[in-house]
Amino acid sequence: MKRLLICLLIAICSLSLIGCGKEKVPESGQVAPERTITIGVMPDVESVPFIIAEKNGYFEKEGVAVKIEHFSSAKDRDSALQGGKLDGVITDVIAVVFANEGGIKLKIVAKNEGNVELLAGKDSGINELKDVKGKKVGMSTNTIMEYTTDKMLEAAQIKPEEINKVAIPPLPTRLEMLQGGKIDAAILPEPLAGLAVKNGAQALISTDEMDNKAGAIAFTSESLQENPEEIKAVMRAYNDAVAYLETEPVSSYSDFIIQEQNFPAAIKDSLKLPQYSKAEKPKEQIVADVVQWMQAKRLIEGNYEYKDLVDDSVLR
Description:
Strand content: 15-25%
Radius of gyration: 23 Å
CATH superfamily of the largest domain: Periplasmic binding protein-like II
Number of strands: 10
Distance between the termini: 57 Å
Number of domains: 2
Structural class: alpha/beta
CATH architecture of the largest domain: 3-Layer(aba) Sandwich
Shape: globular
Helix content: 40-55%
């Protein structure tokens, strides 16, 4: 009898272990994650697919818990990243290089979409790109904005030193100074670029025309090592959001986006979203060009290759 009782206890324990070992499996077939992936976003159009993925339940569908943290400045976002409070960020190649130079191991998993435009003020006397020579151009220096401006000038065979670069980091202030005639031109991202055009500014050139966008979706090396399946799930949800954005009219979600991203209410009629594409790695040439630009300006000491900055495992 004692032997029979022991056998029964062993059988019951075995069944209990089997039951406990089962985890909830989402629609995609991936095992539900044990931790939350926290992603830092800025008030820009590049972050919209993540906002839509959260709104439409695509993260939940993929079985991944995601927390979207909104930041009003890159400085605050980067402080949170440095403090270990973020797994990923919607950023750009320059910021990723700076992070690695500063000891934060950050890797790009995909490029992101977003249009940046060089705009002439209404009464600036600038009618085409070549007219910016000698003019005051507002931007944030040593950033993606200055890099983009230099590339735009290069396309028009204008040297960066042939314009007067005016450092105006806050985007609303830059827009205000352009509209007030205190600077002749400015580099602005959407949605503020669209608002500037609506108020009389003239678009001279955009990154959509140049095909050299340096935006990035990046995650810390630590998170990539510890949560590879969760981050893959995040990017599948991103692709679902892109598919939604391709078919749905902007009017069906513009109010939500404006509220979530804290965009000025005045942009509703001028809101232009980029032609989002499914997640793909950035071009090697763009990454190499950014590193070369930063080295030429002596912004970094290290030499970074594509494999140092880009993770190729997530999108396999």
